Amino acid sequence: MSYLVAPGSGERVDVFGEGGGKRTAEAMDVPFLGELPLDPRIRVGGDSGRPVALLGDSDPQSQPFMAMARQIAAVCEGGARRAGPSITIED
Fold first, then answer.
1. Which of 6, 39, 70, 83 has its CA 20 to 30 A from that of 17?
2. Helix (H) or strand (E) segment spanning residue 5
3. Rounded to the nearest 5 degrees, what angle is found at the Cα of 85, between the Cα atoms of 80 and 89?
4. Strand 3-5 relative to strand 37-38: parallel, antiparallel, unpaired?
């Protein structure tokens, strides 16, 4: 979670600062998947067993989740970006 949308004004408020997740992803050489809003309706949906992602791509609450899901799918389809470590076991 990275930001909230102020009730009434609709203004985006970066509660934890701005760009930290993206900078961390770049520093760790991993894909930045996106930002998710702090929204009590998301918690309510999850707690009731009806996550906002089920509302569809046209619903503003589900859009950030759907965008992140597309990013994850693209990363998975692309395969490994780099080889894992080599482990040698000797007797």
1. 70
2. strand 3-5
3. 140
4. parallel
Residue whose structure tokens are 């046209």:
58
**Gap between the Cα atoms of 54 and 66, Å rounded:** 10
What would the pLDDT profile of 19-53 be if each residue is shown by its tens digit? 998 999 999 988 888 888 888 888 898 899 999 88
| Residue 28 identity (one-letter amino acid) | M
Q: Count Cβ atoms below 10 Å from residue 26 Cβ, excluding itself.
A: 12
- Tell whether the torsion through CA atoms of 20, 22, 25 and 27 is positive or negative: negative
Q: Which amino acid is at 41?
A: R
Amino acid at the residue 45: G
